[in-house]
Amino acid sequence: MPNLITKRWHGYHMVLAMCFSLVLIALLSTYNWAFALIGLFFYLLLGYVLYRAEKQFRHEFNEYVQTLTQRVKGANQAAFDEMPVGILLYDRKGQVVWHNPFIKGMADKDSLVGSAVTDVFPDLAGNGSDTEKLLLNNRTFEVIHDHEERLYFFREITRLEELRKRYEREQNIVGFLHMDNFEEAGAGLDDQERTLLVTDVQSVITRWAQKQDITLKKFDAEKYFMVFRRETLERLIRNRFDILDVVREMTHHNKIPITLSIGVATFRSSVVEQTHAAEAALDIALARGGDQAAVQQKDRVVFFGGKTNAVEKRTRVRARVISYALTNLIRDSERVLIMGHDQPDMDAVGAAIGVLRSVRMADREGYIILKDSNPSIDALMTAISEHHSLEGAFIPPEKALSLTGKNTLLILVDTHKPSLTIEPRLVERSERVVVIDHHRRGEEFVKDPVLVYLEPYASSTSELVTELLQYQDERLTIEPLETTALLAGIVVDTKSFAFRSGSRTFEAASFLRRHGADLSMVQTLLKEDLFRFVKRAEIVKNTEVVYDKIAIAIGEKDERYDQLIIAQAADTLLNMKGISASFVIGWRDDGKVAISARSLGEPNVQLIMESLGGGGHLTNAAVQFEGLTPLEARQRLQEVLREYCEEEGGGVK
């Protein structure tokens, strides 16, 4: 019996009382021995009763403890046998040494002892996590693994998983649908034709919404607000938002077809934030040229569609407003830094020189950030070194970082992705950033820019900057080298006005020509030496044609190329008869593997490059890899091409 029972302190009071009584009896015997004998008799009788009571207590207590022990053991065994949790022990060899009856019900076997855990539950093999989910016979279990004790716990969560999946399926998603080119498509049509066109398009959209269980509310002439469930979104993603194709094909006979842009946000923090995220997704889709859906999924955006070139619809009003706002930002700054993308081309440098002219017209200090020259701009940089006003305008990134302050304005040209700039740290440190770019907006973007002039309809950033210059001071003075650099940027990006050249492109070129742009100097700046021509020819000779119309070329294994040669090789292949798209892969000088992609419109090389982590335009795109070889990059490209061709109906159109 435990000491706390036999030697409990509060049990000694009876012993003390008995001793005290015995002392009293002894004292009584000195006065009257008869009364003392009577007292002694009752003392012994009381002692006997107490002894029997104590003995009975200990006996009953032992029986109680034994009974309780048996009940606890029985409860433990019943718990192991009946509890809705599986327990499995295994040895060092991974074989089952013991399990409770719950495991038998899971595996539908009487005994698993001696079997390997990997044979009984193959999905647990090689999983080093402490907690995981196991799907077995249409039942879902949560598995907790105690590696030290070589012990598995299994808890069935089938019902919980069903509720979770149902909750996810029934989550409300909000989005916006925008009819692109709505006003332009009706131009030139009479009232009846315009009404019929709009009615047909709206009917198709309404029927599609009803079929997909989407609540649609029109709140503007060309905008709809959408509410639907996540299961509907998953279905739309599987169908790759086929409503885009339906409306495009329906109106393709129009001079300007109507296309759709859709913005959707899936994450749930609050309804207000989700709505704002959906609006931002729609803005991204529109900034990329429309005719596509942008789905915001937490920290990334997934795009669908984007199969057509954007219709040129920039207005001079917007150019004038942007020019005015940019001038005010420059005047409110102490210093202006201008930066393009890494390995800048003629368009980036030409646009930067144009922006520098705006800075100097506002009487502010301005610099262009350039890390190193490259073959695509060597001729221009040589000409600049001989030009007194531009000679000191170019500074290295290290100096630009030291010049960055509270009153410094950073202007990015020909890129909107901080990771692709010459010095990404400069973007992080700058409180005010302006973006001027003509590329379709990607998932990565400058955080909180003060001004954005992103027009995917433009042929080049030099064209956008030229338009901004037209709305500067009427007494515009711009030097011939500056206009020549801007014109060279336009010529490079349009392939001598053969691609992506709209009416605004020729107007910008005409403006530059009137202000002294030298056409012969443009040709001189764009001349190529014989060595580079031979290197490009070496790439072209390693060409393989797939899907009958797609050319894939890969550079020499141990050869390094600058980005310009890779891009020029892709342009050369696209000029070959029967080729609708070209992809050129090669090592760059910086150790990265680059892919330059060109297309005549189909396939959409922008979507293909975005699948690989790059971006660009429908007809002109690229991507760079770190840690891959050209052969591995080619394998990834072929996988994406195969998926793209399967989605397009088995082949490239």
TrEMBL record:
Membrane topology: Multi-pass membrane protein
Keyword Membrane appears in the UniProt entry: yes
Catalysed transformations (reactions): 3',3'-c-di-AMP + H2O = 5'-O-phosphonoadenylyl-(3'->5')-adenosine + H(+)
Record organism: Kroppenstedtia guangzhouensis
InterPro entries: DDH_dom, DHH_sf, DHHA1_dom, GdpP-like_PAS, GdpP/PdeA, GGDEF_dom, Nucleotide_cyclase, Oligoribo/pAp-PDE_c-di-AMP_PDE
Superkingdom of source: Bacteria
Keywords associated with the record: Cell membrane, Hydrolase, Membrane, Transmembrane, Transmembrane helix
PROSITE patterns the record matches: GGDEF
Protein name: Cyclic-di-AMP phosphodiesterase
Main location: membrane
EC number: 3.1.4.-
GGDEF domain ranges (all copies): 170-298
Matches recorded under SUPFAM superfamilies: DHH phosphoesterases (SSF64182), Nucleotide cyclase (SSF55073)
Function: Has phosphodiesterase (PDE) activity against cyclic-di-AMP (c-di-AMP).
